[in-house]
From TrEMBL:
The family this protein is said to belong to: Belongs to the peptidase M1 family.
Function field: Aminopeptidase N is involved in the degradation of intracellular peptides generated by protein breakdown during normal growth as well as in response to nutrient starvation.
MF terms in GO: alanyl aminopeptidase activity; metallopeptidase activity; zinc ion binding
Keyword DNA-binding recorded: no
Keyword Protease set for record: yes
EC assignment: 3.4.11.2
Name of the protein described by the UniProt record: Aminopeptidase N
Signal peptide: none
UniProt keywords, alphabetically: Aminopeptidase, Hydrolase, Metal-binding, Metalloprotease, Protease, Zinc
Cofactor or coenzyme needed: Zn(2+)
Species the sequence originates in: Undibacterium jejuense
Length: 892
């Protein structure tokens, strides 16, 4: 069911927005659910929107068989409407219309996982962004909000559970082996929030009392055999409900809230009203199958989807160009939720560092490539390609900047005004900005550029100190590189949180000319609004060390020249934990870049003692949270190092990084061993912040220790693998064993452990995904090995999680092997994209993006990449999803 297209698919522009010609008041639907042929009857009451330039009644449909179309009780003749692609137009419709539509759809044949599809014999829907049109003809656009009543009918044995949006108002038998359930959603919603689920499912449920005293029913639905894995999702849901009440005064508006887990899902999860549908990866957990990272992922995704109930559902998007209105804001909310749950200052900083790492590694890269787009795009070919890190993560940073500029209370006031103005409406990013501006009285006109201009801004910092007048000057200059369709950029409104450190590393009381009202503060938020601005600080007794962009106060690249000594001072002392970590990363990056060049030049590699000692001091500093130490000791990824180069040499980067890991282990072996011993977590597994932090540091130590072949560290990893009581420790040990560069005997033992792991967990799909992933990213895994793993009986491209676990992990997570000199990695990539394109265009288009940055590689690799890109481009029946990504890459 791919969107087959012949020529270049059309581009949709934001500027072409026209309000719908008709509003919808009510939607009644009846489903006769059958896996082969499902019959859908829909009655829609509509009324003309006299304010619209659109005079026709417009409906969208895709992959539908139309059985009946009646308007106001009369069958519509073939000449009363036109169908062009997905668009049906009925001209001369009266002002008040009741449409009755009957369609036939084929869930079993639907491998796109959009619309109504089958998963392990159950029915699942996914309607965002444009999946509802695969169920019935409808004005399937987010600004058309209506009330839905849905009747589900199905065989009772095969489909004992029938779920819909909102409240269950009636259920019963139909007498013929079938039964029914009638659901009514009391809130108006856009069609993309429609959902139904039917099949054999079991649930963990609980009555939960809201702050107001009202009791609500919470359910987590899973396939049989998984009820021992739902507790964490349920806990996360209750935490989410409580958090939104406390932090934003937002209450659950339904009497019932359901989460359903499915193993066939294109993304993480979906916020359908009252009936969230999740990828099993973000629901199922117990200590046997899930790692600490999985537990954290579940918490934040459960939070994310729950928070959409207000930011996305009650207030939704006018059109899909406004996607970040709901996604950026909801990511900000889920990030704050996870940070608040940990509570401590370091805990919050750790969460912030993890989020910024993703932003820099993935979003900055997107912003520098052919798919770069503004947080509020101006155009797209396929909206599914715009569920991006720019919309989500950069969008969240944009929301965070309001929070930084307006403060905790100020931001809350803005949110309150946003809901007071727009509850029940479909609005734009500008409406959110207006609520923030009007509630605070601040002029946020220039702030709009964060929505309209793509690319990552660079801020350059230059300083001068005059001992005589005790004056320190900080000059900040901003620029932003050209991006597709945007050559010239105007200055952004950039909040730069900062402080100055004295020679002991203590914060200095600040006296800045531009912020005299805040004299004496040790942390200031400078507002950079011009291309270049100079901030003058007086009463500075000695030349300070600046700490800029504290807590990463804006999504920019900061150019500043620090000496190693200054970075050492910041790493050891900055009162801002984010910038302590940042200083360590700067020290590491500097060395990794130099060493990469040394590898290319064939020079001997050396690691200096200043760096080793700075890391040693952090590693042994027990006053620091173990998770913070783990982050400081983690070297920038190969992808991050690559960003430092104009021309990327993946193998040289890999060699340099491996060298630093080995050198650190040689020098810090004793310290890593004691960190290992000191951070064991004996006893029953709990996913609490302290135990998770300990396991993170302990397993990082293990991974370092296994970077330097040695009999005793191999034993350590083997013992941990054999005796592990939880998946976090077991997987970390298996990874250490697999990546151990040791003897043949050790390699054989590692292979045995991999086999045993598979055997022990072959019934747990999510664990087998980890098994594939671990091998996909191992530096011994080349293209031939990936092809061999693709032949494994447990591998299939038909399931997105499984496809991602091996092929995506290899193409995106194993750069030194993927970029093999002979181009074999790209040839594999092209085959995979072409194959996936037939099965699932959305998933295919994600993989297609692995070659986005092809222009950053040496010419001989570029040639191979171009061939691979052209091979995909020449494929027949290319979905518009893949066509857009490949087209933009080739145009770069
Ligand atoms: N709105 C979902 C979220 O919260 C995203 C999503 C889930 C989605 N499934 C999808 C988007 C399928 C497009 C297609 O992040
Ligand atoms: Zn979302």
């Amino acid at each position: 069911m791919s969107n087959d297209i012949a020529a270049t698919p059309p581009t949709i522009f934001r500027k072409d927005y026209v309000a719908p010609g008709f509003w919808v008041d009510t939607v009644e639907m009846g489903f006769d659910l059958d896996l082969h042929e499902t019959h859908v009857a829909t009655r829609i009451t509509m009324r003309r929107n006299h304010d619209s330039a659109e005079k026709d009644l417009v409906l969208f449909g895709a992959s539908l068989k139309l059985l009946q179309l009646r308007m106001n009780g009369v069958n519509l003749k073939k000449n009363a409407y036109t169908i062009d692609g997905e668009v049906m137009r009925i001209a001369n419709a009266p002002d008040e219309v009741t449409l009755e539509i009957e369609t036939l759809i084929k869930p079993l044949k639907n491998t796109s996982l959009s619309g109504l599809y089958a998963s392990n014999g159950n029915f699942i829907t996914q309607c965002e962004a444009e999946g509802f049109r695969k169920i019935t003809w409808f004005p399937d656009r987010p600004d058309v909000m209506a009330k839905y009543t849905v009747m589900l009918r199905a065989n009772k044995k095969k489909f004992p559970i029938l779920l819909g949006n909102g409240n269950l108002i009636e259920e019963g038998d139909l007498g013929d082996g079938r039964h029914f359930a009638k659901w009514e959603d009391p809130f108006k919603k856009p069609s993309y929030l429609f959902a139904l689920v039917a099949g054999k499912l079991v649930c963990q449920e609980e009555n939960y009392t809201l702050k107001s005293g009202r009791s609500v029913l919470l359910q987590v639905w899973v396939e049989d055999g998984n009820l021992d894995k739902t507790q964490h999702a349920m806990d996360s849901l209750k935490n989410s409900i409580r958090w939104d009440e406390e932090r934003f005064g937002l209450e659950l508006d339904l009497d019932r809230f359901m989460i359903v887990a499915t193993s066939d899902f294109n993304m993480g999860a979906m916020e359908n009203k009252g009936l969230n549908i999740f990828n099993t990866k973000y629901v199922l957990a117990n200590s046997r199958i899930a790692t600490d990272v999985d537990y954290a992922g579940i918490e934040s995704v459960v939070g994310h989807e729950y928070f959409h109930n207000w930011t996305g559902n009650r207030v939704t998007c006018r059109d899909w160009f406004q996607l970040s209105l709901k996604e950026g804001l909801t990511v900000f909310r889920d990030q704050e939720f996870s940070a608040d749950l940990v509570g401590t200052t370091t805990g919050r900083a750790v969460k912030r560092i993890e989020d910024v790492r993703v932003l820099r590694q993935v979003q900055f890269s997107e912003d520098a490539g052919p798919m770069a787009h503004p947080v509020r795009p101006d155009s797209f070919v396929e909206i599914n390609n715009f569920y991006t890190v720019t919309i989500y993560e950069k969008g969240s940073e944009v929301v965070r900047m309001y929070y930084t500029l307006l403060g905790h209370e100020g931001f809350r006031k803005g949110m309150d005004l946003y809901f007071a103005r727009h509850d029940g409406q479909a609005v734009e990013c500008d409406d959110f900005r207006a609520a923030m501006a009007d509630s605070s009285g601040r002029d946020l006109t220039q702030f709009e550029r964060w929505y309209s201009q793509s690319g990552t801004p660079r801020v350059k910092a230059e300083t001068t100190y005059d001992a005589e007048t005790q004056t320190y000057q900080l000059t900040l200059s901003q620029s932003c590189p050209a991006t597709p369709g945007q050559d010239e950029k105007l200055p952004f409104h950039i909040p730069v949180a900062m402080g100055l450190l004295d020679a002991e590393g203590k914060d200095i009381a600040l006296h800045c000319d531009a912020y005299s009202a805040l004299a004496g503060a040790t942390n200031l938020i400078l507002e950079l609004t011009e291309a270049s601005q100079t901030f003058t600080f007086t009463g500075v007794a000695a030349k300070p060390v600046p700490s800029l962009l504290r807590n990463f106060s804006a999504p920019v690249l900061l150019d500043i020249e620090y000496s190693d000594e200054e970075l050492g001072l910041l790493l050891a002392n900055d009162s801002d934990p984010f910038n302590r970590w940042e200083a360590g990363q700067r020290l590491a990056t500097r060395r990794l870049v130099k060493l990469t060049k040394a590898v290319q030049a064939g020079e001997t590699l050396e690691l200096d003692s200043m760096f080793i000692e700075a890391l040693r001091a952090t590693l042994v500093n027990e006053s620091l949270d173990p998770s913070f130490r783990e982050l400081v000791l983690t070297l920038p990824s190969e992808a991050m190092i690559a960003e430092e180069f104009d021309v990327v040499d993946p193998q040289a980067i890999h060699t340099a990084r491996q060298f630093v890991r080995t050198a650190l282990t040689q020098h810090l072996r004793a310290e890593f061993l004691s960190a290992y011993e000191a951070n064991l977590t004996p006893g029953q597994y709990t996913p609490d912040a302290i135990s998770m932090a300990k396991r993170a540091l302990k397993n990082l130590a293990l991974s370092y220790l296994s970077a330097w072949s040695d009999e005793s560290t191999f034993e350590l990893a083997q013992t941990q693998f054999d005796e592990a009581e939880n998946m976090t420790d077991r997987l970390a040990a298996l990874s250490a064993l697999t990546n151990f560069h040791g003897t043949e005997t050790q390699a054989n033992a590692a292979a045995q452990s991999l086999k045993k792991f598979y055997k022990d967990f072959k019934k747990e799909a999510l664990v087998i995904d980890k098994w594939f992933m671990l091998q996909a990213v191992a530096d011994t895994t080349d293209v031939a090995k990936v092809r061999e793993l693709m032949e494994h009986k447990a591998f299939t491209l038909g399931n997105p999680n499984r496809a991602r676990s091996l092929t995506f992990s290899f193409c995106n997570g194993n750069p030194s092997r993927f970029h093999a000199a002979d181009g074999s990695g790209y040839a594999l990539w092209a085959e995979l994209v072409i194959e996936l394109n037939k099965i699932n265009p959305q998933v295919a288009a994600r993989l297609a993006r692995s070659l986005d940055r092809w222009k950053k590689y040496p010419l001989h690799l570029q040639e191979h990449m171009k061939l691979a890109l052209e091979k995909v481009a020449a494929t027949k029946k290319l979905s518009k999803d893949v066509a857009e990504v490949i087209g933009k890459a080739l145009a770069a």
